[in-house]
Sequence to fold (914 residues):
Amino acid sequence: MLLDVKELYKKIDCLMNKEVTLQGWIKNHRKQKEFGFIDFSDGTCFKHVQLVYDNKLDSFDEIQKYHIGCAITVFGEVVESQGSGQNFEIRVKSIKLEGDCPEDYPMQPKRHSNEFLREQAYLRPRVNLFQAVFRVRSTAAYAIHKFFQDKGFVYFHAPLITSSDCEGAGEMFQVTTLDLDRIAENGSVDYGKDFFGKQANLTVSGQLEAETFALAYKKTYTFGPTFRAENSNTKTHANEFWMIEPEMAFCDLAGDMDVMEEMLKYIVQYVLDNCKDEMEFFDKFVEKGLLDKLNKLVKSKFTRISHHDVITILKNAKVKWEFQPAYGEDIAREHEKYITEYFSGPVFITDWPKDIKAFYMKLNPDGETVAAVDLEVPGAGELMGGSQREDDYEKLVNRMKEMGIEVDEWYLNLRKFGGCYHSGFGMGFERLLIYLTGVENIRDVIPYPRTPGNCDY
Amino acid sequence: MLLDVKELYKKIDCLMNKEVTLQGWIKNHRKQKEFGFIDFSDGTCFKHVQLVYDNKLDSFDEIQKYHIGCAITVFGEVVESQGSGQNFEIRVKSIKLEGDCPEDYPMQPKRHSNEFLREQAYLRPRVNLFQAVFRVRSTAAYAIHKFFQDKGFVYFHAPLITSSDCEGAGEMFQVTTLDLDRIAENGSVDYGKDFFGKQANLTVSGQLEAETFALAYKKTYTFGPTFRAENSNTKTHANEFWMIEPEMAFCDLAGDMDVMEEMLKYIVQYVLDNCKDEMEFFDKFVEKGLLDKLNKLVKSKFTRISHHDVITILKNAKVKWEFQPAYGEDIAREHEKYITEYFSGPVFITDWPKDIKAFYMKLNPDGETVAAVDLEVPGAGELMGGSQREDDYEKLVNRMKEMGIEVDEWYLNLRKFGGCYHSGFGMGFERLLIYLTGVENIRDVIPYPRTPGNCDY
Fold:
């Protein structure tokens, strides 16, 4: 019976003493005079399988030559394990070499630095850490789709090439088919001859477009790539990353927070349930206490408190701040950390000073703050940001004038043509993965990360 | 009780004579002296709800003023319908106007041309046709994820900005942060100063990178945007579109076809099951016979036949061809159509002449054909294409030399480091949607399509 290792573990009780065929790769190979032991994995689950062969096999000498990394098809019998560490093993009857691997194969079974593995990005999903990271990435992505689809949200594909700029400020990548050498030669740029007849960029957010879907379907979400041409080389910045941007009509800031909280708990629980082995690995080798942290999150009630009241708490704290907390101003990392510890759990900070937030956020009756929210999570910092959107046409136009921002007419028209109170939020997918896995560098949760100066693969 | 229209229909048996609150939009408004009838929808399902109000309400005169397109919150009682066409209606107790809509609102309840609606792309999901199209888009996307996740495939996010070119031939969009005006001024281009230190483009396919995941996880799939800078203004070309690219290790061409067939049937059945109202609408108003076509597909057994044998059939056909079928050459639309009619169902055409296929396809023992497959579907033409990949290092290098193609070393190394026979395929998501909905123009199945000269929103 040909089957995946994942199925083998699932149905092991019915497969004992049965013959099976497996296909995968040699991860390690211990050779003895009369026996050989192959650590085998096919990538369908985190667990490996031990293959045992002995010198009664005609092909004993041949098999002993197989290197680490080889692709093989194994035919053998499932038997109770003689050794410790596993309940069963495969007694090999024959092995077919599907693809050889030289002895200088870089992914030898020893500890590699993440920096080295980043340089071998195309091979790193073969080692335990990244095998786990990218399966969690896949599982978390599915959890997000499942959460929203089960709730009736319509999945919206925002355009990637765009002529609008959501944030109003943008370090954006330009997209062009103009011949740059010819521009240099001619000494002039004619955007009329560019592919779209005008300047075009890669999107920094699908939110504005998502609002058009929220006002048609009530509930929508994006899940797609976004791009920022920021020249920052930090552990948390990549220039191409995936974002989730839900948007809900007839939803105020409180409703927005309800969805944020429910979504985060759902994803965490889904990953805990469906990636048990991977999560235990992270807990053991990447971030001690990870499972406790996540299990606690799922059971916690998120605090909701205004920016004003947060500043009051910070001011009253007997702490020597590097940055002095101030009403009307942003809060620093040290403040975020303090406040989640203060409440011993995730904190929604609401009603931010308007001058440090985006133009599209709804002005509160005080005229000074906007109905914005940041979610601060212990050990992750700001994990999501959202707001109720300004749905008053005049107020929106005034705010844009004040801030010197222009947007396309269609965005304003959404406030004229049956607009209603509506809210949404954004979550960087990689930021979530850093939180879920304990892996610290964003370069290690994206298969092929793009950062300044790096665009391999 | 506040609920979505979707829930209302689902639980209608328990809700009769109960009070409910609904939030959504006025789609039509018929006013009589003593009564008013509002055609109401909240976008959570295709079905609308009829609201009835009478002049016993204090707000009767006020409500009569509400225009088509207004956003409202309705409080009323679910009652058996007096009129025909629906089983229940809402007897209004009060309506709160959430957002007004002027009388010149473009989406009046009359027949609009698709061309007009394309110009109002941000409003078109509010009309029946596009409301249905983009919900089917969302549902089909989810079906794809569900299909692959249930089978243990790992979802892989291919990089969008890339320095490689999968097809070896590429009309690609360039991505840059260089200041074009400065290039014109300086008279020279220095890619060393570009964001990534070299020329970068938008990807045309994630396949090559997906192969790295297949050789680590056995089974992987991409589902993301891809870009082609083709200057073609046809009904089936867009410059930004979404692709699904599964890739499987230890999988030959036959196994590839198994997955293609199973996947397509799964998606079609899932959409038929989960978008009943939408699909009936398409069947009635967009493509007569659509449901028959799709139901037939799900039950059919796909034919598998070689390109050579297809040419023989075409040559023997008593048809006056515009293009003469020839061994060793591509087949035309008229041939595709004939062959699906000949077999009265979907046809996998396999083993194509190597010179009309990509460099990475596995050379067959005859030395003339490659293990490639196109799936031809009645009413859709070529819906997917796939191949077994060349896993022989030498043959791959030779073929690249013959074709004058260069790829990065990592791609070749996949054949050295435990490579194995593996296969994959690609499906354009919009092509699938055209097939599923009967809508003819790709511009009408993408929320904000990008075509030459068009990059609005």
